[in-house]
Amino acid sequence: MIRSWEFYVDMIFVTAKAWILSLLGRFLPDWIVVLASITISGVVILCLGPVIMMYLTLLERKVIGRIQNRYGPNRVGKWGLLQPIADGIKMFTKEDIVPANADKIVHLLAPIVIVVPALMIFLVVPFGERMTAVNLNIGLLFFIAVSSVTILPIFMGSWASRNKYSLLGGMRTAAQMISYEIPMTLAVVPAIMMSQSLSTNTIVLAQTGDFDLHWFIFTPWGIVGFIIFFLCATAECNRPPFDLPEAESELVAGFHTEYSGMKFALFYMAEYMNAFTLCGIAATLFLGGWQGPFLPSWLWFFGKTFLLICVMIWFRGTFPRFRVDHLMGFAWKFLLPLTLINILLTALWQFTSNLTAWLWSILILGISLWILVKLNRTFVPEKRHYPLES
Amino acid sequence: MTSDQIILVPLLPFLAFAANILAGRWLKNRAAWLSVATSSVACVIALPICWAVFQGAHFAHQGTWLMLGTVPLKFGYLMDPLSATLLFMVTIVGTLIQIYAAGYMHGDPRYSRFFAYVSLFMSAMLTLVVSDNYLLFFMAWEIMGLCSYLLIGFYFEKDSAANASLKAFLTTRIGDVGFLLGFLTLFAALGTLNFSEMNTLMAGAHGSHATLNTGLLTLAALLIFCGTIGKSAQFPLHVWLPDAMEGPTPVSALIHAATMVAAGVFLVARSFTLFMAVPNILPIVTAIGTITAFMAAFIALTQNDIKRILAYSTISQLGYMVTAMGLSGLGAGTFHLITHAFFKALLFLGAGSVIHGTHVQDIREMGGLFKKMPHTAVTFIIASLALSGVPPLSGFWSKDEILLSAFGAGNFLVFGILLLTALMTAFYMFRLIFLTFFGAARNAKVHAHESPALMTGPLWCLAVGSIVIGIPGSPFMHHWFQKFIAHMVHYPEYEPSGLVMACSIAVAILGITLAGVMYLKQKHWAAAVAKNFPLFYRLSFNKFYFDEFYAAYVVKPFNALGHVLFGFDETVIDGAVNGTGRNTLFLSEIKNWIDQYIVDGAVNFMGTAVYFLNSFVKRIQTGFVQNYLLIVFLVLVAFLILELKLA
Amino acid sequence: MPILEIAAKFGTYAVMAVILIFALGVVTFRNLFHCALCLAAALIGTAVIYVVLQAEYLAAIQILLYVGAVVTLIIFAIMLTEHLAGKTARQNNSQSLLAIVGLLGFVTLLATLILKTPWPVTPTALQAKNSVMGLGKALMGTYVFPFEVISIILIAALIGTVVIAKKDAPEEPL
Amino acid sequence: MIVLPLSHILIFSLVLFAIGVYGALVRRNIIGILISIELMLNAANINLIAFSKYTSLSPETGQIFALFVIAIAATAAAVGLAIVLALYRVRKTVQADEVNLLKW
Fold it and tell me: Is D1 a domain residue?
């Protein structure tokens, strides 16, 4: 079969891996080849995660700098490209401080454990055509389950530090993450319903069409689902405006107040990798994943993901922080009902998907949004009392 | 054309009642419009049906309600000439009065409550009109009594209103009990309560009296007539109606002038075949009616409260109607009922308008209101002319018919009394008008003003009605109305007599002139008359001492009897009871000792024994959950071992 | 590839051993927070066992619900009641010896039973591949009634929990 | 595919269950008891899945019942912890042997 050069560009990584494996297969037993196959994927992901994290920090600092009308880092290397490496060296060489009263083992374990789920999510992200590390048939559920584990190490870190700010930050994180996990999971359901699969790969393939532009976001439920998912994702990785757990003006630095050096770097890394994977999953579910005309699939995927990350950074540069009760109320009283309505809408969409369905969807969504906004209207008490403790 | 929608006519006001009583607080001023709207719709539904009946149609429908042994008790509606006429009158007058009341009651704290009651009343009245048997009739009759009670006592903060409502309720109750016993007797005699069936039976009975128990029927007719006496305020139970004027004026107009009190006359008209069939009852009816008509008119001559004059006038006119019935003038009586409803409602509403404008009720404090309240005055005068029997207004035609009945029957005593009553009627009405609307203002504190259009509008509507409603019964339409009623029941008819008409016109004009002379020109005549005939004056002014008579000879004996019974109760019965109590107390003290030392001792011993034993057993209840769990678990293991050993 | 299979088998046994060690940790550690963490680890290990038994869906649900929700809840409760569970407090009650004896009897009895029983293992069943879709269809078909009952129980528990845990706040005018 | 003997899995879950029972019997802290109960439920789940995998039942049955058990376990934990919090608020203790209002 003759294939065009675009195909080879598209499949460049896949082809490379197959070539290496066939090379090894010449002189090694089969089981080593299998092991090697797993190892290659693992190593690539293990390298990819930190590298992405490093350059995300640079990207963030640059973009935030531009938003705030300054340059951002530009001294180390061309355009500050070596800045992350400098930061890394600084982190490695810093003193590792452990509080005297801390639960030492748990204090040590927490930053290590938090990286594991962050890296594991990479396993099911489809970076390109045939470029999913493990094509699980429950890929999406795997992602949801693993990302829910992230709460645990945050708890560990906050508890082990024996610091009231850490503990408060940990409690806030748990409340926030559990709350936002529910609308996030429900926001994913429409995509599952339409593609009839939990596999990330199948979901991407369900979005094929003319010019590979048959993305879920171009449907009413897709738009709503995407927006809810993206908001919940921002809350899940504790980024502004949902960064209550580490609100520095209230809690010093939340659960990682007592961490320094490499341990802190690990927390930092997990956070950025989570941001990346969440944006990647959002792109997979609603923006067609690696689908797109003309360009190679992996380029499309990274382009969409970085676009979403830029939006997140933009959020950080723009919005002020939520108040705690507003934060919880937003998840439970606004997003949750909206996702349920969205699921209903998707079910309707499965029967008819024409112009009338569009109009109906917009009508239903409009009415429900209006009602939810009305119901969620909060009022500020005229005068608040802060009794002073004597 | 089907007529089943007639059921809606009483039902709609009932819905308004339910809505107003349940959601009145929320409805506020909308309550009035709900009531007005429902009765208007009822009117719109009813009028085509009435029209069809006027054209000669006849509707009836009935279904089985319940079984009395083997006799089915049926209920349904009956649309014959009589009920169509009443339906026509009640819906129109009721709607107009409610519109008026919306203006009159404005700002009252119990606004919605008022309209709830009025709607309930409308519902009951319409049920009564369309009902086809005595039982349903009686139920509606009783609900009307309740509404009357509630509405007379509407301003229950006033003692006089509360007492008046109680008086009205108790007085009419005497008649109601009579009515209840009456139709039960009728049921015993005929085996039916249905009007149509009764009419058929009675028509058959004309031929052979033997088939029916005349004695029972006479008793039944007499008792039913008791209902009329109570409800239509006939002598001697008329005393409640003047006091009923304590209620709001629209209520006086609707219930105590136009509709409810007419129900008594309607009852006689409904039972007309019965009254015709039994002997000796019609003279009694005539006598009661005549006495009432004359006596009430005589009392009205000297009263000073504007509403009381109208109340006595109402009693008098009701007496007229009853007299007509007694003279077998069914058509004449019904005709007068209709015309009277229109002009008397108008008079009451006009009086209400005057009270609304001046805030006084005593005519001696009024005067010269014609300029200030032109609409009220003109409509009031129209109504008074109609009542006085001035041609060609409606009252003339109907009153003339009644006089003709008396004349034609050859009963010249009654004819004479009625003529005298007509004279007094014209006199007291125009005494009222001249004192109220003409002459100089006698009280400077009264600042009169015309009422709003919401109130004067119904006044004009009723004024037009008062003028034209007499036409169908006049020679211009060849006494169409009388013939129409005569379709239903046969009764004697008389040729119109010019002499009667001349007498009627003459007494009306004489009365008006006399009033004019006495109260506009020669004002000292009135006092002179009172001084020269002190007996008559005092009798009239004190209403023939009826209230005093009842207080002395009915209420006081009852109170005395109550006191005697109370004394008996206190000394004899209570004494016996207390003696028994003391004895019991003594016995129980003995028992107490036995209980305390013997029975309780035994019980306590048992308790102590159990307590002692239990101090060993209770140790296993440690209150410690895991201990229980462990025991359960160990027992489970033991059972497993046992099971495996056995296997 | 027998080597890989053998390695996987031993891996599974290793996971089992690790689970048991963590489970022992759950019941023996003095510090309740450590117990909860051990529980989380044991539950994650159990999820691995599920994967071995080809119940991937259930493994994911296990992690999502147990680790993500239940353990979090427990840790919440521990933190809210924590300062009572200080290190000096005795963690076990006085009946541990009796419990151990009973349990040893229980385990030996049931273990002999398990080993003696000829289990009706069907090789075809081992080959059968279950899909998430089949699970969903069974849940919405055969087991739809228990499914609905479970949802009612969940709602009832939710409301009950809120009612029980709610502080009786003094009435404040709105 | 990894195939273990069924009895090994059963013994493993038996031991897990026994450890859970031990915790439920001897832990003083009520939260500790709840944790142990979660362990027991977990062991039962392993049994359910193993049986449905190894016997001729349809493979879904055991998984669905395990699913139900997980749901019930979640509710049990939620309600149990709410009770613990209420108890703590009223009695200022979370030790099972200090809550003995129903003692004789």
Answer: no
Domain residue limits at A370: 94-375
Angle at which helix B111-130 crosses helix B260-270, to 10 degrees, equals: 10
List the structure tokens of B465: 């009605």
Mutate which: D1, D9, D13, D81, vs C, most C CBs within 10 A: D81
Residues of D in contact with C58 (CB under 8 A): 49, 63, 66-67
Name the pTM for this structure.
0.56
Number of domains observed in the structure of chain A:
2
Residues composing chain C = 174
User: Is cis: bond before B557, omega within 30 of 0?
Assistant: no
Angle, vertex CA A10, rays to CA A8 and CA A15, nearest 5: 55
| Chain D neighbours, 3+ Cβ pairs < 8 A | B, C
CB B406 within 8 A of CB B415: yes
Residue type, B467: I
Contact in structure between B275 and B110 (CB atoms under 8 Å): no
pLDDT of residue B371: 82
The answer, for A174 touching chain C at a CB cutoff of 8 Å, is: yes
d(CA B314, CA A284): 92
Overall size of chain D counted in residues: 104
Say which residues have a Cβ less than 8 Å from residue B89's Cβ, sequence separation at least 6.
B258, B259, B337, B338, B341, B342
A-C interface: how many C-beta pairs under 8 angstroms?
72
CA C48 and chain centroid, separation? 12
Q: How many CB pairs under 8 A join B and D?
A: 30
Q: Do chains A and D touch (3 or more CB pairs under 8 A)?
A: no
Q: What is the CATH number of the domain that holds D36?
A: 1.10.287.3510
What's the whole-number mean pLDDT along residues A356-378?
Answer: 84
ipTM of the assembly?
A: 0.74
- In which band, very low, low, confident or very high, does the pLDDT at A2 lie, cut at 50, 70 and 90? low
**A49 and A181: one domain?**
no
Q: Decide: A105 and A99 in contact? Cβ < 8 Å.
A: no
Pair (A223, A107) in one structural domain: yes
For B193, phi then psi, to 5°, come to -115, 0
Give the class (CATH, top level) of C3-87+132-168.
mainly alpha
Nearest by CB to D2, from C9, C96, C107: name it: C9
The token pair that represents A377 in the structure block: 């209207």
Q: Are the beta carbons of B224 and B186 closer than 8 angstroms? A: yes
- Residue in A145, A171, A181 closest to C79 by CB: A171
Domain count, chain D: 1
Of A173, A257, A228, give the one whose Cα is nearest residue A342.
A228
C and B touch with 3+ CB pairs <8 Å, answer: yes
The 10s digit of each residue's pLDDT in A278-327 is 999 999 888 888 887 777 888 888 888 989 999 999 998 888 888 887 88
The beta-carbon neighbor of C67 closest among A31, A138, A152 is A152
Give kind and range of the element (H or E) at residue A236. helix A220-236
Neighbouring residues of A8: CB distance < 8 A, sequence distance ≥ 6: A15
DSSP string, C15-68: HHHHHHHHHHHHHH-SSHHHHHHHHHHHHHHHHHHHHHTT-HHHHHHHIIIIII
D103 belongs to a structural domain: no
CA distance, residue B627 to nearest chain C CA (Å): 8
- In whole angstroms, what is the distance from residue B345 CA to residue B350 CA? 8
End-to-end CA distance of chain B: 91
Q: Which of B546, B307, B310, B326 is nearest to B417 (CA)?
A: B326
pLDDT digits (tens, 9 = 90+) for B227-250: 888 888 888 888 888 888 888 888
Comparing CA positions, the residue from A289, A53, D36 lying closest to residue C42 is D36
A72 and A183 housed in the same domain: no
Residue A149 near residue A190 (C-beta atoms within 8 A): no
- Looking at chain A, the number of H-run helices and the number of E-run strands are 16, 0
